[in-house]
Each structure stands twice: as C-alpha cells, then as structure tokens.
Write a structure and sequence with these properties.
Blueprint lengths: L2 H13 L7 E2 L7 E2 L9 E2 L2 E8 L7 E6 L1 E10 L16 E5 L7 E2 L7 E5 L6 E15 L7 E7 L2
C-alpha cells in the first residue's frame, strides 16, 4: 500500500468519514445511516451501495442505489387505479410495501419516517402481510413526488 493511500485512510478515520468498501452494521434497533458517511462500495445491511448522490449543503435530497438481495417483512397494499381527475402523482394499481421495524432495510437519516417503497414486478394484489426477498433497492428523497423502489424477487415462507 502506498504512503498516499495510507495517509488518505488515516485522514478518513480521523475525520470520521467512511472508508470505501466499509461494511456498516445495522443494530438490533436501527438500520438508519447518515448519507454523508457512506460511499460507493460500502455495505449496509448486506446491500452494496452502487451509487450515492446527496446534497450535503442543505440535506434536501439523497439518492442511493443498492445492489444485492435482502429479506424484508411487512405489509403491502395496492394503490387504486385512478379513473378520473388524476393529478399525475398516482401510481395506479402499484403495490406498496411498508417494512416492519424488525426488517434491516437501510434507511437514510433524512427520511427516517419513510419506511415504504414501491414494489416493482410483484405478483401481489390487494393488501396483506408478507415476507419477501427484494433486490435493486433505491432510496429517493427529494420532495413528495419521488419514491423509494425495489424489485420483487420472491416470496419467502
């Protein structure tokens, strides 16, 4: 390892910033992370940060793209299809999933109250409880119209 790399790692440790490829452990009580401390390649709750974009100046937005699969438990519901008077913000017929507090899905500190995401490619309909595997989880925080998403992989029993 070169002296320059060692110096950068020491500086990162002293300043409290993340080391690329760092594994972040979620605790039994929280999977909340600070986007300013996370870098591409870090692992949060078993998911790898593929890309992260955030506005550190005013903390107004964060977009995090994860790779890998994760097991989540929670409730789901199907959004009604908008027939008339649609505002364009609806996701008619889409399945939404809210993770339970026991699930370790990463949550950006900017959006701690948001535990729901749009579940894409799901065979689920109506509403109920489920345990399932998801992949390609994305956090999008930048106002009301942008939502978190994940791809359905399979139901778990």
């Amino acid at each position: 390892m070169s002296v320059g790399v060692i110096a950068k790692l020491l500086l990162a440790l002293l300043l409290g910033s993340a080391i690329p490829g760092q594994t972040w452990q979620s605790t039994a009580s929280s999977s909340v992370f600070d986007p300013e401390q996370v870098e591409e390649g870090d692992i949060l709750s078993g998911l790898t940060v593929e890309r992260i974009d955030y506005n550190a100046k005013d903390r107004s937005s964060v977009h995090v793209f994860f790779t890998g699969e994760i097991l989540v438990k929670g409730t789901y519901w199907q959004e009604p299809v908008c027939e008339t008077g649609c505002s364009g913000e609806e996701h008619g017929g889409a399945i939404w999933f809210t993770v339970s507090s026991e699930s370790r899905l990463p949550i950006a500190s900017y959006e701690e109250s948001r535990r729901a995401f749009l579940l894409e490619g799901s065979p689920l309909t109506g509403e109920g409880k489920a345990t399932l595997v998801i992949k390609n989880y994305e956090i999008h925080y930048e106002g009301k119209e942008i939502v978190n998403t994940a791809d359905f992989v399979r139901l778990a029993h």
